[in-house]
Amino acid sequence: MSIYYKFLNKEFSDLWIQRTRELYDHAVQTGKYKELHMKYIITPTHMREYYIEKFLWLDDLPLYNPREHSVVFFRFNGSDPEVDHFEVHKDPTEAWANLNVPVYNCTTETRTVWVEPIGEEYSQHEERAGSHIIAGQTNSEHLRSPYREVETMHITDRACLFKGDEWHKVIVDHNRDEWRVMAKYWSRQNNWNELIEKYSEHIDEKYSIHSS
After folding, report:
1. What is the sign, positive or negative, of the torsion defined by CA atoms of 177, 180, 186, 191?
2. Which domains, and CATH codes, for the chain?
3. pTM of whole model > 0.85?
4. What is the pLDDT of residues 113-133, one digit of tens each?
5. What does the pLDDT read at residue 103?
6. Percent share of the chain, pLDDT over 70
7. Number of other CB atoms surrounding residue 144 within 10 Å
8. Which of 6, 20, 77, 206 has the least C-beta neighbours within 10 A?
9. pLDDT-derived band of residue 212, with 50, 70 and 90 as boundaries?
10. CB–CB of 63/158 below 8 Å?
11. What is the pLDDT of residue 211?
12. Could you report the per-residue pLDDT of 53-105, keeping only the tens digit for each?
């Protein structure tokens, strides 16, 4: 059983994939989001001003508060080497454990890979957005020492609990001009074990075994 993720059952996943698509589509239509490299972010300010009253279900997620937390839509495109991968990193801003939801074009042609450092671990914080260094954007921790890959997973048609405070990378394995969109309900300081407990009735252990 994976120590990095837990897939959720089909009923929960179908509901939240549909809801998250509606949220993303509305954001794209209205332009009410903050755009960074590889990301559309609905910030807490956006939430309070434009979204909470329209999408009342935002209050239904355990350990997520739309008045204080963001939703981040990660956007990959296989046709561009600057936006077709994230290098090895840990999620920034204390995003230790959160809910990830596939939105569009999430297939087995995109993989998330957890890694372990080999020997002495060396990392550095950089003003980086995804795979691209951009001053003034996200300051995140990136691994700079050798590593080995330890586990690979594909987020396709299920939502999952995602442990972002471990080393991982994301790779798109095609070169099509197609946007792959993945949402993260970006709470801060979530405890992994508490997250699992809060979502326990929705976790599909058998699916997780099959997909790991």
Report:
1. negative
2. 5-211 (2.60.120)
3. yes
4. 999 999 999 888 766 665 666
5. 98
6. 91
7. 14
8. 206
9. very low
10. no
11. 47
12. 999 999 999 999 999 999 999 999 999 998 999 999 999 889 999 999 999 99
In the 3-class helix/strand/coil scheme, how is the chain assigned residue by residue?
Answer: CCCCEEEECHHHHHHHHHHHHHHHHHHHHHCCCEEECCEEEECHHHHHHHHCCCCHHHHHCCCCCCCCCEEEEEEEECCCCCCCEEEEEECCCCCCEEEEEEEECCCCCEEEEEEEECCCCCEEEEEEECCEECCCCCEEEEECCCEEEEEEECCCCCCEEEECCCCEEEEECCCCCCEEEEEEEECCCCCHHHHHHHCHHHECHHHHHHHC
d(CA 212, CA 209): 6
- Calpha distance 196→173 (Å, rounded): 30
Written as six digits, the tokens of 26 are 């509305």
Mean pLDDT of 166-194: 97
Asked whether the beta carbons of 114 and 166 are under 8 A apart, the reply is yes
* Alpha-carbon span 140 to 123, nearest angstrom: 10
Quick one: which of 115, 121, 122, 118 has its CA closest to 87?
A: 115
- Alpha-carbon dihedral 108, 16, 92, 165, rounded to 10 degrees: -70
Name residue 2's amino acid: S
